[in-house]
UniProtKB/TrEMBL annotation:
It comes from Acetobacter musti. The chain crosses the membrane at residues 36-54, 74-92, 112-130, 151-170. It is a multi-pass membrane protein. This is Cation diffusion facilitator family transporter. It holds the Pfam family Cation_efflux. Keywords: Membrane, Transmembrane, Transmembrane helix, Transport. Belongs to the cation diffusion facilitator (CDF) transporter (TC 2.A.4) family. SUPFAM superfamilies: Cation efflux protein cytoplasmic domain-like (SSF160240), Cation efflux protein transmembrane domain-like (SSF161111).
Amino acid sequence: MGKTAVAWLSLGVAVIALGLKYAAWACTGSVALKSDALETVINVVAAVAGLLAIRLAERPADDNHTYGHYKAEYLSAIIESAMVLVTAFAIGRASVGGFLHPVHVDAPWSGIVLNGTATILNLVWGYTLLRIGRARRSPALVAGGQHVLSDVWTGFALIAGLALIPFTGWHWLDPTLAALVAVNVLRVGWEMLRQSVAGLMDEAPDPETLQKMREVIARNAVGALEAHDIRIREVGAVTFIEFHLVVPGSMTVAVVHEICDRIEVGLRQVIGRALINIHVEPEYKAKNTGIILTSDDQKA
């Protein structure tokens, strides 16, 4: 299933969940369930933004965007993060109103059933989005999955709290739960924003991924002397790699080209889609830094 189809499904799930949560709030008058419904409105808006961003990101490179449109997904994730933060403040405001003007919660069990159905739906879809997003290296789908799962955990907390109200008579639980929802949404929104900004700022991959790529370069650069100034960045589903490759001055262009092709094939086998730029230099340009290809490497 393509990313665009997944984005359409995500929008459909968000609309269904919103309908269930709105019904839960309408039949109970619960401030906490109202807060949960408000968050789901943002899910719908975010799903639309994610769909548009994915369609834009899949466009091929053109004269104005020679490296493609991949970063559009990060823009979508940032917009979604910002909306999540705004939602957190709106929910917090509603919880304060609940403390100042307590509302008796009516028919909590019908609300629990409706909200629980929406929560289970989001649980299944949130994990599905994360799995597909990580497999496709899609920032928009991963952000969407994180957002949906944040809704799930707060949903379970709301259900547990509302179930206690009929037995305890503690109606202050309702605004308290809404405040806890706001705190959790704020936490998730901040983490989503941090990850999205890191992608736009071309943050390097984690050390484990960097080491794996360095090993691939060393293993496939037999005949070269050194690889230095290695720079790697991930933009959605595409990895950009560039480095300088030092070779003996007597080596022919054909042999150097063969080495570069071998390195590129090796890297793509490990990381998938990649744009690779290798700058070839003669041996007097060696810096004795980066990947030094020893005699053992040459024998490999």
